[in-house]
Amino acid sequence: MIQINRNFCGGAIEVIAADKIDDIKLNIPKDNQSCTRQWFYFAVETDQPETHGIKLVNAGKVTFDKAWQGYCVFVSYDNDTWFTLPTTFDGKSLVIEHNSVASVTYYAYFVPYSLERQLALEERLSQNKHFELSNIATTLNGNQVTMFSIGDMQAHKKNVWLIARQHPGESMAQWISEGIVNELSDIERHQGLFDNVNVFVVMNMNPDGSQIGNHRTNAQGKNLNRCWSEPSALECPEVFSVQREMKEKGVDFFIDIHGDETIPYNFIMNNSRDDVGALFKRKLADKDPRFQLKYDYATYQNSCSSACGVSSCGAGKTATAFISETFEATSLLLEASFKPLKNRPDTECWNHTSCTELGHNIARVLSNLFTGLDK
């Protein structure tokens, strides 16, 4: 018997046919209240290990239709240890062929980051006396938007903000933020940083979307990164609450962490009027070979797609634009790839582990930037 299961945190798939293990036909679903179609995460369950032949038959109609060029699917037998497999794309269907060695096999667009993992991390880090965890909003589905305040919160210090996963399908953003907070938990190593700044981290801006398997929107169909002009407390309490905290505490340096579906590089767009953002980029490129300076939205192909009707890629104010205009602060957009990195083709797999390592290095560069000491 073959079963296709999506009944877990972040699960998303539609079954067309699953009668034959070598000819499973599936659809990538839309977000629950929007036209966005991109994220998938499901399990194939059989009586014994078998060779899987899977077609995502509507892959050519997703929101970012250039996402499948050079794409590798993420696979796991225990929902914990993940590896990648090459895929083929014929312009219509994304094809996955896999000789599974287990009776349960998970497939995902990128390595998922569950709310359960987030809660466990928050519980552990809350034991650190330098970390204060706050519930700053309750979402439509009753989830909490949480924020770490790290340091002694003295008013004369600069305020550094990092937010991640406004778009829930961009799970690499939360893996990166996990690396950041784990690195910053070593307060003694980064004492020079905390002598000068207060740090605020929102690891998951969109817990509802993360839970129900949306790619780009919250449970009410709102693209949070287009709601920063006048966020509604009812429709996007996630942005409303974070913006309220920012106005109360102030912002001097900001990074919004995302994932990009089409560009096979990690990069930063600098929305700042000062030189600090450019310096941060150079330091990060020197520190971590997974990050590079050559390719970004200005120098690579345009990844904005109109596959789901009238494109909304440029509609509404983004977080980085709001921060730059409101606080005149250094405002950076970090985009991490869904694909294998072209600048690291033979050295390592780009996955959740390398995301956390990049997060560690982001924290180290922040420490260097605000102390002048090379950690």
Per CATH, which architecture of the largest domain?
3-Layer(aba) Sandwich
Which CATH C-level class of the largest domain is it?
A: Alpha Beta
Average pLDDT over all residues = 94
Shape: globular
The amount of beta strand, in percent, is 15-25%
Low-confidence runs: 305-314
Number of strands: 17
* Content-based structural category: alpha+beta
Describe this structure in words.
This protein has 375 residues and is of the alpha+beta class. It has two domains: 106 residues, Immunoglobulin-like, CATH 2.60.40.3120; 257 residues, Zn peptidases (Aminopeptidase, 3-Layer(aba) Sandwich). The chain is built from eight helices and 17 strands. The strands form three sheets. It has a seven-stranded mixed beta sheet, with helices on both faces. A hairpin with a 6-residue loop joins strand 2 and strand 3. Helix 2 packs across helix 8 and helix 6 packs across helix 8. The chain is globular. The termini are far apart. About 3% of the residues have low confidence.
Provide tags for this entry.
alpha+beta, Aminopeptidase, 375 residues, Immunoglobulin-like, 8 helices, five-stranded antiparallel β-sheet
Question: Helix and strand layout, with pairings?
Answer:
Layout: E1 3-5, E2 14-17, E3 24-27, E4 41-45, E5 51-56, E6 72-76, E7 82-86, E8 88-89, E9 94-99, E10 104-108, H1 115-125, E11 131-138, E12 144-150, E13 158-164, H2 172-184, H3 191-194, E14 197-202, H4 207-212, H5 237-249, E15 253-260, E16 267-270, H6 276-287, H7 319-327, E17 330-337, H8 352-371
